[in-house]
Every structure is written in C-alpha cells, then in structure tokens.
Design a protein that fits this description.
single chain, Peroxidase, domain 2, about 0% strand, globular, disordered N terminus, disordered C terminus, binds protoporphyrin IX containing FE, binds 2-acetamido-2-deoxy-beta-D-glucopyranose
Length: about 350
C-alpha cells in the first residue's frame, strides 16, 4: 500500500467512524416509530391495562413507577426487568425495588400480547414508557405522544439502582441533586413527584415521621396531626411496617393536582413529598402553589417532564436489542454477544458500500 492509499484508507476509516457515530449520538426517539411495523401497539396496551386495572386499580401507579425506576438506572432501557441469572444481578433486588415494585407480571402479559401481534418489533423499554402514559390516561390524567424507538439493555446494575433511586428520607437538597444527576431540574422534580397523586406506600417507608423523626423523639412537625393519628394507628411503632396507605389522601386513584393541595394542609405522606412545600425558603414552594392554582399547568409540565425522563440514557439504532422475553436477554449465553457483533459488522459494511 503506498502512502496516498494509506492516507485515503485512514480518511475512509475516520469517515466510517464519524458516520457510524452520528446515528447513535443524534438518534431521536419518535412517536411514529412503530407506524407501519406495529401501529396498534398503543391500543393493545390500553386494552390489557383496561382489563387488569378493573380488578387492580393500583396497577396504574405501579406501572408509572416502574418506568421511573427503569429510567434512573443506566437510562430507560428495561434494565429493571432483567431477572437474576448467572450473569445478571437483578435491579429488582435493590433496596428501593425489593418487595416494592409491582407490575412485572403485567409487563410480561403486555409483551406476550404485543409479540403475538408484531413479533420482534417492540422493545420492553418502549412498553414501559407506553404503559406509563396509558396509566396516566386511565386514571384521568394527561395523555401525550410517547417518543419511541428505545432498545433494551444487555445488562443491569443493582449497585447503581441503590445509588440512583431516591429514598423517601432524603432532604430536599439531596432530592434535587438525585434528579440533577439525571438531567432533571427542580421543576421536573416537583412535577414528577405529582405522580404520587395515585398509588400506595407501605408504613416502613414513612414510619420515621411518626414517632421519632430525625432522632428528635417527636413526630415530624410538618405532618398534619389528624393524619398523624390515622397513620400511628395503621403503623404501630416497631411493627413490621407492611400495611399500605394511599399516597394521595383525598383522591387516591385519580390523577389530579390534589397531591399538591394535600401538601398545603400538611397531608403529604412521604417526608420527600412534604418537603417540597414545607422546607422554609425553598424554590419548590412557588411551583407547588402554581400547580395547586392551575391543574392544566401541572398536566402540561408533567407531560414535558415525563418525556424528558423518558429520554434519559436511551439505547437506539443498533445498540442493545429488542428482547423476546423482557426478563432475560436474548439467547442469554455467549450467542447474544455474537449476534450483536454480527449486526454491527453488517451495518458497517452497508455504510462503506454506500460511500
Ligand atoms: C422524588 C423522589 C421520589 C421518592 C423518594 C419516591 C418514593 C416512593 C416510595 C417510598 C413509594 C412507596 C413504595 C412502597 O410502598 O413500596 C413510592 C410509590 C410510588 N411512586 Fe414514588 N418516589 C419518588 C418519585 C417518583 C416519581 C418521579 C414517580 C413517577 C413519575 C413516582 C411514582 C410513584 C408511584 C405511582 C407510586 C405508587 C406505586 C404503587 O402503588 O405501586 N415516584 N414512591
Ligand atoms: C403515526 O400514526 C399515528 C396514529 O395513527 C398518527 O397520529 C401519526 O400522524 C402517524 N405518524 C406518521 C409519521 O405517519
Ligand atoms: C380483556 O378481557 C376481556 C373479558 O375478560 C377478554 O375478552 C379480552 O380478551 C381481554 N383483552 C385483553 C387484551 O386482555
Ligand atoms: C422474574 O422475577 C420475578 C420476581 O422478581 C418473577 O415474578 C418472575 O416470575 C420472573 N420471571 C421469569 C420469567 O422467571
Ligand atoms: C436464560 O434464560 C432463561 C429463560 O429464557 C432462564 O430460565 C435461565 O435461567 C437463563 N440462564 C442464564 C444462565 O442466564
Ligand atoms: C429481598 O427481600 C427478601 C425478603 O422478602 C430477602 O430475602 C432478600 O434477601 C432481599 N433481596 C436482596 C437482594 O436484598
Ligand atoms: C454499576 O454501577 C456502579 C456504580 O456507578 C459502577 O461502579 C459499575 O462499574 C457498574 N457496573 C457495571 C457492570 O456496569
Ligand atoms: C427545567 O427545564 C425546563 C426544560 O426542560 C425549563 O423549561 C424550565 O424552565 C427549567 N426549570 C428550572 C427551575 O430551571
Ligand atoms: C435532620 O437533622 C439533620 C441534622 O441533625 C439536618 O441536617 C436535616 O436537615 C434534618 N432533616 C429534616 C428533614 O429536618
Ligand atoms: C395494620 O393496621 C391495623 C389497624 O388498621 C393494625 O391493627 C395492625 O397492627 C397493622 N398491621 C401491621 C402489620 O402493621
Ligand atoms: C389537616 O388536614 C385537615 C384535612 O384533613 C385540614 O382541614 C386541616 O386544616 C389540616 N391542618 C393543617 C395545620 O394544615
Ligand atoms: C393555566 O395554565 C395553562 C397552561 O400553561 C395556561 O394556558 C392557562 O392560561 C392557565 N390558566 C390560568 C387561569 O392562569
């Protein structure tokens, strides 16, 4: 090879690298991603969730939360759905998830129904994003066009789940920083916390407020005394903390802005809920007040924040894979690695031949 050819070859190499990088770094999700390949995916999931929620109204909140817990750990890549295997330490075992997340079986039911209609097309990560939006709609909340085209991870990270998923005992500063780490700002934090307008929480996750808050020997002073009495009856001191109660005291299964008016009357359930309104001087108070006075505004910002959250760390293009079974990577042995390499090589060949 002479020096000119070598230069040309080097330049071609760089071009290939740049061209290959482009679709990944600039890949955008798109609400019409499955038009033509699985046009009915939204209505299929709506049917399943309409059915399931008739006997289990809580499932709608559980599914919104599942998408959140997916996105905060190496991005919205369905890593939360991967079960323990020889090579996977499941995120389901992380402290914020263990004995807490719900809906894994329903996601599998959705996946089976979607696979029957459009085999090998729709990712588990997109199913989680769609199920979250549909759950909002089915509980009277806002609808939005869900950007699609996510692909599923080949890995999970339980350590990262323990690090990134916020505990209900964080201070407001810690909460803000947990969200900032994901590219979400204070407005997003307040709007997304509004998902606690539906769903339940168990005693162990707020019992710290009831008897000996922050080692003061007294209950949390920002907890409404009427609610305090109710919760002390439900959650005996030193009990197992397994009883459940509604996150939204006033309209437990309806997606509305009452979550925020509850904060105004010190009826937020979790410490992290009440802090948004009761931390003196906090910039979150004004946002809460805006959402109380205008539900349309809350819905608009909630939609934008859900789309923003749904974009965190997504895999697109030829990254990851479309899992056949959401709980396991495809051919969960060395063969999945080989398949990934084969796909990469063929896309490189296509690019080179198109130059
Ligand atoms: C701001 C930080 C957050 C903290 C500290 C937090 C914490 C919690 C806790 C402790 C529970 C109760 C879990 C249990 O009892 O097992 C819960 C439930 C829930 N969370 Fe959050 N959460 C946060 C943000 C979010 C976000 C951003 C969303 C969604 C956009 C969300 C949606 C939900 C829903 C819908 C439930 C009810 C789930 C069910 O009933 O199965 N949360 N959260
Ligand atoms: C995709 O389908 C949806 C629903 O039928 C429609 O609203 C949208 O305009 C379509 N998008 C494209 C790009 O065809
Ligand atoms: C919903 O339930 C009805 C009646 O139980 C059943 O006929 C239908 O197949 C179910 N649809 C889905 C998508 O599960
Ligand atoms: C995956 O693990 C969950 C519990 O975390 C379990 O309910 C489910 O049955 C498992 N899925 C499969 C296919 O084994
Ligand atoms: C591989 O996946 C199957 C389910 O498809 C599961 O039962 C098995 O435990 C997994 N094995 C390993 C080694 O990951
Ligand atoms: C999850 O909780 C169960 C108790 O229900 C416990 O046995 C198990 O060790 C926990 N898993 C992890 C990974 O901590
Ligand atoms: C999981 O996350 C931890 C904490 O950020 C990181 O140190 C580790 O390298 C990750 N593990 C894998 C297998 O990616
Ligand atoms: C948060 O980000 C959104 C855009 O995603 C922006 O409109 C909003 O002003 C930001 N809020 C704050 C408090 O920075
Ligand atoms: C709990 O106490 C610590 C110091 O003792 C303080 O920094 C923290 O802000 C307190 N948390 C709340 C929510 O009051
Ligand atoms: C659940 O709440 C009831 C009161 O409604 C209480 O008597 C019982 O001890 C609680 N159970 C647990 C496991 O905390
Ligand atoms: C406590 O909550 C009740 C409604 O449940 C409300 O009427 C009352 O004003 C609240 N107390 C405070 C101090 O906000
Ligand atoms: C409520 O918010 C919406 C959306 O931002 C806005 O269009 C509307 O004018 C607001 N309504 C009032 C009464 O301020």
């Amino acid at each position: 090879m002479d020096s000119l050819n070598l230069t040309t070859a080097t330049a071609l190499c760089y071009l290939v690298i740049v061209l290959r990088a482009l679709p990944f770094s600039y890949a955008q999700l798109d609400p019409s991603f499955y038009n033509g390949t699985c046009s009915n995916v939204h209505s299929i999931i709506t049917q399943v969730l309409t059915n399931v929620s008739a006997s289990d109204p809580r499932i709608l909140g559980s599914l919104i939360r599942l998408h959140f817990h997916d996105c905060f750990v190496q991005g919205c890549d369905a890593s939360i759905l991967l079960n323990d295997t020889a090579t996977i330490v499941s995120e389901q075992g992380a402290a914020p998830n263990n004995n807490s997340i719900r809906g894994l079986d329903v996601v599998n039911q959705i996946k089976t129904t979607v696979e029957n209609a459009c085999p090998g097309i729709v990712s588990c990560a997109d199913i989680l994003a769609l199920a979250a939006e549909i759950s909002s709609v089915l509980s009277n909340g806002p609808d939005w066009e869900v950007p699609l085209g996510r692909r599923d991870s080949l890995t999970a990270n339980q350590t990262l789940a323990n690090q990134n998923l916020p505990a209900p005992t964080l201070t407001l500063e810690q909460l803000k920083s947990a969200f900032a780490n994901q590219g979400l700002n204070t407005t997003d934090l307040v709007a997304l916390s509004g998902a606690h307008t539906i769903g339940r929480a168990k005693c162990s996750l707020f019992i710290g407020r009831l008897y000996n808050f922050n080692s003061t020997g007294n209950p949390d002073p920002t907890l409404n005394t009427t609610l305090l009495q109710t919760l002390q009856a439900l959650c005996p001191n030193n009990g197992p903390g397994t009883n459940l109660t509604n996150l939204d005291l006033t309209t437990p299964d309806t997606f509305d802005n009452n979550y925020y008016s509850n904060l105004q009357s010190q009826n937020g359930l979790l410490q992290t809920d009440q802090e948004l309104f009761s931390t003196s001087g906090a910039d979150t108070i004004a946002i809460v007040n805006n959402f109380i006075s205008n539900q349309t505004l809350f819905f608009e910002i909630f939609k934008a924040s859900m789309i923003k959250m749904g974009n965190i760390g997504v895999l697109t293009g030829s990254q990851g894979e479309i899992r056949t079974q959401c709980n396991f990577v495809n051919g969960n042995s060395s063969s999945s690695g080989l398949a990934a390499i084969a796909t990469e090589e063929s896309s490189e060949i296509n690019l080179v031949s198109s130059i």
